[in-house]
Write a structure and sequence with these properties.
CATH class of the largest domain: Alpha Beta
Number of strands: 12
Number of domains: 2
Number of helices: 14
Low-confidence stretches: none
CATH topology of the largest domain: TIM Barrel
Shape: globular
Mean pLDDT: 95
Largest sheet: 8 strands, parallel, barrel
Strand content: 5-15%
Strand order of the largest sheet: 2-3-4-5-6-7-8-9
Radius of gyration: 20 Å
Helix content: 40-55%
């Protein structure tokens, strides 16, 4: 058996919990965090900005001795960077879209301009796209420098990297690399195929300046496991996934399967990993029925994450992996005002005020945490009619 160096980043408690209907209470998260830490993974990601309860959990885990393993997934804002560090972490995962499709939807200048409100990246000029790219590079650099000045170790999660322009992605890696521990390449809607995954990582390594490249692949087409293994074969220095493969839509690459698959197929044992401890994590999750939705299932079309629905209001292709049928909107801990905006404007054609959307967001988030569940459209409409939210 050959021992290899591979950085393992766990997203079970962050991306994993974004699976609609899967609620992890703080006690469960604490227990899982310690079980996951015992496996020897190098990083455990959580997101303090989701809710004050989540921030308190990160602080508690740091006090309990997991501080060096914890990483705070952090939105591109100095306030969120400060919040993450105040929770006791020494490393953060800053994230931003790198595909033209998603960057266009979030560009602060064009999104506020009336002439662009009904457009997507498919029908704007090359000059507009170039301007969007330059603004993104400048914004990310500003926040990378700020995090570095605060003494934080930084990973950059390149959202939707698998649909990004290759040349621009190379520019991102080379520009951000000096500030990073790892550049995390995300296949956000499961667009990659195994053959492409290998070539993509191989070519990126050949065209960039030595920045460590990790991968975070989604399982919409049932290929996240093989795509991740192919990325390792091509030279990726790290992998990111979840135990049991839980996560939004059809989940993520299952870490225990990737690690055992590398050992079984190639005789590669990852340095520092306790393979028996992997079984303890999956056993605990099986006892609690924490399992992913199968690819192509009806449940894999459920969407609760606010930032995703905000984008899908303007561009159906932003986060919906398949063209046949719209996503099914759900409401819960990860919802935003955009969930209600999508429901009332896109589906019901009964627009409400922005203030009302915000009121509903706050109310449903609190109710979801209190009842430890998510809510369907019919349940939400009944709650509104009854005056309960």
């Amino acid at each position: 058996m050959e021992t290899i160096a591979l950085t393992i980043s766990d997203e079970t408690l962050r991306d994993g919990e974004q699976q609609v209907g899967l609620y992890l209470d703080p006690a469960t998260k604490q227990a899982l965090a310690h079980l996951i830490a015992a496996t020897g993974v190098h990083q455990i990601a959580l997101m303090p900005a989701v809710h004050e309860m989540e921030a308190q959990l990160v602080k508690q885990l740091a006090v309990q001795g997991l501080g060096l393993k914890l990483a705070a997934s952090t939105m591109m804002s100095q306030a969120y960077i400060d919040q993450s560090q105040d929770c006791g972490v020494s490393q953060i995962i800053l994230f931003h879209a790198v595909s033209d499709r998603l960057m266009f939807l979030r560009d602060p200048e064009l999104s506020a301009h009336p002439a662009y409100r009904e457009k997507t990246a498919d029908n704007v000029s090359a000059a507009d796209i170039q301007a969007v790219r330059q603004r993104m590079l400048a914004a990310v650099l500003t926040h990378l420098r700020y995090a570095a000045e605060r003494g934080l170790k930084v990973w950059f999660a390149a959202e939707d990297a698998s649909r990004a322009d290759f040349g621009f992605l190379v520019d991102c890696v080379n520009t951000f690399g000096p500030y990073l521990e790892q550049f995390l390449l995300c296949d956000t809607v499961g667009a990659l195929m195994p053959e492409k995954a290998y070539i993509w990582i191989h070519d990126l390594l050949a065209c960039t300046d030595g920045t460590a490249l990790s991968v975070h692949f989604h399982n919409d087409r049932g290929l996240a496991l093989e795509n991740t293994i192919q990325a390792v074969l091509a030279g990726a220095s790290g992998i990111s996934g979840t135990f049991n493969g839980i996560g939004e839509r059809s989940g993520n690459a299952p870490l225990e399967q990737v690690l055992n698959g590398l050992r079984l197929r190639f005789g590669w044992q990852v340095e520092g990993i306790d393979y028996k401890a992997l079984d303890e994590v999956t056993r605990y999750m099986d006892q609690h029925s924490f399992r992913p939705n199968p690819p192509y299932s009806a449940q894999s079309r459920w969407c609760e994450t606010g930032i995703h629905l905000s984008s899908m209001r303007r561009d159906r292709n932003s986060y919906a992996p398949f063209a046949d049928g719209p996503p099914e909107v759900w409401f819960g801990k990860f919802s935003g005002a955009s969930n209600f905006q999508y429901l009332f404007e896109q589906q019901l054609k009964r627009p409400l005020s922005r203030d009302r959307y915000e009121q509903l967001r706050v109310a449903v988030k609190q109710l979801a945490i209190q009842e430890q569940r998510s809510f369907s459209v019919s349940e939400i409409l009944a709650l509104i009619e009854q005056g309960l939210i």
